[in-house]
Amino acid sequence: xxxxxxxxxxxxxxxxxxxxxxxxxxxxxxxxxxxxxxxxxxxxxxxxxxxxxxxxxxxxxxxxxxxxxxxxxxxxxxxxxxxxxxxxxxxxxxxxxxxxxxxxxxxxxxxxxxxxxxxxxxxxxxxxxxxxxxxx
Length: 136
Known about the structure:
The chain contains three helices and four strands, in the order ααββββα. It has one domain. The protein is 32% helix and 23% strand. The longest helix is centred in the first third of the chain and has 19 residues, at 29-47. The protein is an alpha+beta fold and 136 residues long. It has helices at 2-15, 29-47, 104-114, and strands spanning 59-65, 68-75, 78-87, 90-95. A four-stranded antiparallel beta sheet has the order 1-2-3-4.
């Protein structure tokens, strides 16, 4: 019984430890880290190759819903979206807009999660994001 009480107290104490920064983005932390890393790698290896190298501070928001993810990258010219899908346990880039064939409710929910809320903020904002857009 005493061991059970100590274990319970330990669990309660752990709940007060600050969560890592990625907790502000929406989804399981392991998937958030994977999608964020792959987004940066993909951009630097393909899209921005030879021009602009980015890091995770370019990710404005990241939302994961099951096996679907939406990443909002912030640039001075405006946002760029990347959509990811998890197949066979691995995340892969699907498209730069919600792909055809995705369930409509998933695409809508991802847009709401990573888009502006009624209070003007973001639900799934990246806490390390640095605003680079001209729109503020």
